[in-house]
Design brief:
Number of helices: 8
Radius of gyration: 22 Å
Largest sheet: none
Shape: elongated
Strand content: under 5%
Length: 231
């Protein structure tokens, strides 16, 4: 690896960590991310559901969150398997790369190192999805433990406390799900490293710009942010 490769990897890690920070917190000028706004809606949903007499629709939503997380966890396992299959076909890949008009890595050791890096990204994503699935499961249990409103005193302190516990775990599950999804998105940028460090920096920057637009300047954010009370 050259010094430029180390710089490119440092840039990849830096923008990953930086993007994670700005999407989970307010920016200095106060602009709120789509993720932060959705967390408030998660909390509002749980509190509204706690006061419903029939909660079948809410349990269906919980099941949907778990099923979506399980799908992505299974997908990352398949991606890891594909990467190991790629390691077993290194020579064939390098022969194909030699025939391409764009310069790809031609060194076997460096190619395998890059594939192992891709495996590490997918493994990180799998653990995030796995933990998110467990947290959504815990959140479902806490949601089921929320007492009925009519069985409590009029002040509803116990009801709000139970709803807050379920909402906090649901928000935490969403945080880890977003972290796993973010890793999958950035794995697309990581693929640029196979064409060289400059391409890695360019593809990573492009992916981050797309994600920043979705988080801070998208129509989805504009639709959600209206009328949302934020901390």
């Amino acid at each position: 690896m050259t010094n430029l490769d180390y710089v490119a990897i440092a840039w990849f890690v830096l923008v990953w960590v930086g993007f994670s920070f700005v999407t989970n917190n307010h920016l200095p000028h106060g602009r709120v991310s789509l993720t932060t706004a959705m967390n408030q809606h998660r909390k509002r949903w749980i509190h509204v559901a706690a006061r419903r007499d029939l909660r079948m629709i809410d349990t269906a939503i919980m099941a949907g969150l778990q099923n979506g997380t399980a799908f992505f966890a299974s997908t990352t396992i398949l991606a890891i398997g594909g990467c190991f299959a790629l390691l077993g076909a290194t020579e064939e890949v390098l022969r194909v790369a030699d025939d391409l008009p764009i310069p790809l890595v031609a060194d076997r050791a460096l190619f395998e190192l890059k594939v192992f890096g891709l495996i590490a990204i997918f493994a990180y994503s799998f653990f995030k999805f796995g933990w998110s699935y467990r947290l959504f499961n815990y959140s479902s249990i806490l949601f089921g433990a929320i007492p009925m409103k009519d069985d409590l005193p009029d002040d509803c302190i116990e009801l709000d406390a139970a709803a807050n516990r379920a909402a906090s775990l649901n928000i935490l599950g969403g945080k880890h799900f977003n972290a796993g999804l973010r890793a999958i998105f950035l794995s697309i940028g990581y693929l640029g490293w196979f064409a060289g460090p400059w391409v890695l920096m360019g593809s990573t920057t492009l992916v981050i710009l797309v994600l920043l637009r979705r988080q801070f300047f998208s129509n989805a954010r504009s639709a959600i942010i209206k009328g949302t009370p934020l901390p």
